[in-house]
Design a protein that fits this description.
The chain has 188 residues and is of the alpha/beta class. 27% of the residues lie in helices and 34% in strands. It has one domain: Rossmann fold, CATH 3.40.50.2020.
């Protein structure tokens, strides 16, 4: 976890209103994502996530795609991307998501009742997107085997008010314009 830890400590912070946002290759695609960092993250997810009975990896667009693609390649588990645009396909499910700085609709395709899924995302911050996704997957009738976010931003989030549990690789806080590592195991 040395690369992930150091890359977060080096991440610039920007403000969007009252929201302090770190800019990182995993969550933003800038600065450039080095293969070594992505490899470190995927190996750690493989070790941490329950994968034994997973039929599909489910991830929201856009910043979960690169992590989930690498996971799919490493595990041979198919990937479903939750899109920000409707395609009007049979079985498409709409969900409303709200984050610390935006809100909108997302659309799930190719997930059926009884599918066993791993939900994978880049950052758990306010929990708005993740809660909406998990609620929608539950309504569809999927079996959410496990949920993993690479980075969790410390503080209250909507997931805390649910029965859902999210595993993380590293937990951070943004204090005085800098990222601080709260828990490098993601367990605290």
């Amino acid at each position: 976890m040395d690369l992930l830890r150091q890359s977060l400590l080096d991440a610039p912070i920007i403000e969007k209103g009252d929201y302090h946002y770190f800019v990182h290759p995993i969550s933003d695609g800038v600065p450039m994502l080095e293969p070594e960092l992505l490899r470190e993250i995927v190996i750690r997810i493989i070790r941490k996530a329950e994968l034994e009975n997973v039929d599909k990896i489910v991830t929201p667009a856009a910043m979960g795609i690169h992590i989930s693609t690498a996971m799919s390649l490493m595990t041979d588990i198919p990937l479903v991307v939750i899109r920000k645009r409707s395609y009007g396909l049979d079985g498409e499910v709409s969900l409303a998501k709200q984050t610390g700085y935006s809100e909108g609709e997302m659309y799930i395709n190719d997930v059926e009742p009884g599918d066993r899924v791993l939900v994978l995302d880049d950052v758990l911050s306010t929990g708005g997107t993740m809660t909406a996704i998990l609620d929608a997957l539950t309504e569809i009738g999927t079996d959410v085997v496990d949920v993993v976010a690479v980075i969790k931003k410390a503080g209250d989030n909507e997931i805390d008010e649910t029965d859902y549990s999210v595993k993380t690789l590293i937990n951070v806080a943004v204090e005085d314009g800098e990222v601080e590592i709260v828990d490098a195991t993601g367990d605290g």
